[in-house]
Design goal:
The protein is mainly α. Helix content is 78%, strand content 0%.
């Protein structure tokens, strides 16, 4: 029996119930070691990132392959702009020959979305538990004295300073942790680095996200950026560098004949005028 879209939407949380329960149990196990839900959420973010490390590395490599093929894909689009079927055929042939899969990079993201939603449900459904927990400034005398509830007094309440840190981390993650192969992609990253954090900030402020949830996302963002910078340093090479080196070599090769020619002209003039040693030698021979 088919479910209507509305019924399917209400049934979706029930499908994630096993993941929600598993996250609850896992978080409680970490809490049994650290005795603080704030640090336990950070440890959970680190563990999740470690579990998905191989998939994220695979995603990054797939992204690089896809970006490297972008100029060839554009050339095919220009060549077969009036033949959509031939364009699709040649594009798939290009991806197959290069071993790239444009959809492969989506797999890690699709696998992490259920965990993201489940954690949201785990925190919001057990808000009373986090309402009795503190972390660093959250729940301190400073947070209680802060005006307009800017700082949370427990992990169940919204903390707008923590939300601001999360928004800032989103900017740096979007802006700097993904390699851009050309100026167009770099321009898109610059635009999204402002749009995405602005949307996150609005939603967090509008729906009063619990500080426990924001703390997990902030920690996950920081670990993601660390991984991305590591992968960029290990696997990514600036695509403009070979061209720049080639240009430098070409200039050197072009300048070499001119330099050699100038050196030859200088040597010829020296032979005609005579160097000091040559003139001295001729004088000694004439005296003999």
């Amino acid at each position: 029996m088919d479910l209507s879209p509305s019924l399917a939407l209400f049934a979706f949380p029930n499908l994630l119930a096993p993941i929600v329960n598993a996250l609850h149990a896992f978080l409680d196990a970490i809490y049994g070691v650290l005795h603080n839900y704030g640090w336990s959420l950070i440890a959970l973010a680190l563990i999740v990132k470690a579990v998905f490390w191989p998939l994220n590395t695979f995603q990054f490599k797939s992204l690089l392959k896809t970006q490297e093929l972008a100029p060839k894909v554009k050339a095919l689009q220009a060549r077969y702009k009036n033949d959509r079927e031939k364009l699709n055929e040649e594009t798939m042939k290009l991806y197959k020959e290069s071993g790239a899969n444009p959809l492969a990079g989506c797999l890690p993201l699709l696998l992490q979305i259920p965990i993201l939603i489940s954690l949201y449900q785990a925190v919001t459904s057990d808000r009373a538990l986090f309402s009795q927990s503190t972390w660093l400034w959250i729940g301190s005398s400073l947070s209680k004295a802060a005006p307009n509830h800017v700082l949370a007094t427990n992990l169940g309440d919204p903390d707008y300073a923590l939300l601001a840190l999360y928004v800032i981390s989103m900017y740096f993650q979007v802006r700097f942790s993904s390699p851009a192969m050309d100026e167009q992609q770099a321009q898109q990253q610059r635009i999204m680095s402002f749009i995405s954090p602005a949307m996150i900030g609005y939603l967090g402020f509008r729906y009063h996200w619990p500080s426990a949830l924001v703390l997990y996302w902030l920690a996950f963002n920081i670990f993601t950026m660390a991984q991305q910078f590591y992968l960029i340093n290990k696997y990514h090479r600036n695509p403009l560098a070979p061209a720049a080196n080639g240009t430098a070599l070409a200039k050197a090769a072009t300048a070499a004949p001119a330099l050699n020619g100038a050196a030859a002209q200088d040597a010829k003039k020296a032979n005609q005028n005579g160097t000091p040693s040559a003139r001295g030698g001729r004088k000694r021979r004439s005296r003999r």
